[in-house]
Design brief:
The structure holds two protein chains of two kinds.
Chain A lengths: L8 E4 L5 E6 L10 E6 L6 E4 L13 E6 L2 E6 L8 E9 L4 E4 L3 E5 L1
Parallel strand pairs in A: 1-9
Antiparallel strand pairs in A: 2-6, 3-4, 3-7, 5-6, 7-8, 7-9
Chain B lengths: L2 E5 L3 E2 L5 E8 L10 E8 L6 E6 L5 E3 L7 E6 L4 E6 L8 E9 L4 E5 L3 E5 L2
Parallel strand pairs in B: 2-11
Antiparallel strand pairs in B: 1-3, 3-8, 4-5, 4-9, 5-6, 7-8, 9-10, 9-11
Classes of the chains: A mainly beta, B mainly beta.
Chain lengths: ~110, ~120
């Protein structure tokens, strides 16, 4: 059971906009920034969003992040087949004194 | 471009110690310009990611309380490597193990290795 809660799956057609939610508590998302990762099995996970909404260099602006209270969301607009991957949210947890992750959301591009 | 690569046995017997090494290339593990930590994260089959712990270049280590009694993470700055030891393993420790570089007391993992599958089985 992961500390942060994500839907196990999401889907969309090319060009659509999809959102993935991430729910936590006051000790993690409620008091610390959220990060999002994209992971293709067999490869290194990739930092997609840090500090709730900021994108590392090279990440397309189709990817955006937001946070409100103890929840966060990742939005992907203009969905492309190459976006098919697993997406994880993560945040520092003050009770654990360490990072915690969501269970991951498998995105399927139909 | 910073790269991380995990290495170690892919099969460990129950009750034995799992040992993995992460080799860092393209940058120094002793970088002090930012507060970087060198972490281990694992993903059991079909499950999500779990933080195991991390180490600062000075050698100070930090562990997930749920694994703390069995985990040791150390750093070898001359070799630009850091290592994980997990003792008394069981089948529940079967997972893909990733090494990663984390920025500060955040969950911002800027660089990851590809991961290595470790199976615990007799």
């Amino acid at each position: 059971q992961s500390v942060l809660t994500q839907p196990p799956s999401a889907s969309g057609t090319p060009g659509q906009r999809v959102t993935i939610s991430c729910s936590g508590t006051s000790s993690n998302i409620g008091s610390n920034p959220v990060n999002w990762y994209q992971h293709l099995p067999g490869t290194a996970p990739k930092l997609l969003i840090f500090n709730n909404y900021q994108r590392p260099s090279g990440v397309p602006d189709r990817f955006s992040g937001s946070k409100s209270g103890t929840s966060a969301s990742l939005a992907i607009s203009g969905l492309q087949s190459e976006d098919e991957a697993d997406y994880y949210c993560a945040a520092w947890d003050d009770s654990l004194s360490g990072p915690v992750f969501g269970g991951g959301t498998k995105l399927t591009v139909l | 471009q910073l790269q991380l690569q995990e290495s170690g046995p892919g099969l460990v017997k129950p009750s034995e110690t799992l040992s993995l090494t992460c080799t860092v290339s393209g940058g120094s593990i002793s970088i002090t310009s930012n507060q970087y930590y060198w972490d281990w994260i694992r993903q059991p089959p079909g499950k999500g990611l779990e933080w195991i712990g991390g180490v600062y270049y000075s050698g100070s280590a930090y562990y997930n309380p749920s694994l703390k009694s069995r985990v040791t993470i150390s750093v070898d700055t001359p070799k630009n490597q850091f290592s994980l030891e997990l003792s008394s393993v069981t089948a529940a420790d079967t997972a893909v193990y990733f090494c990663a570089r984390r920025l500060g007391e955040l969950a911002t993992f800027e660089n990851w290795g590809q991961g290595t599958l470790v199976t615990v089985s007799s």
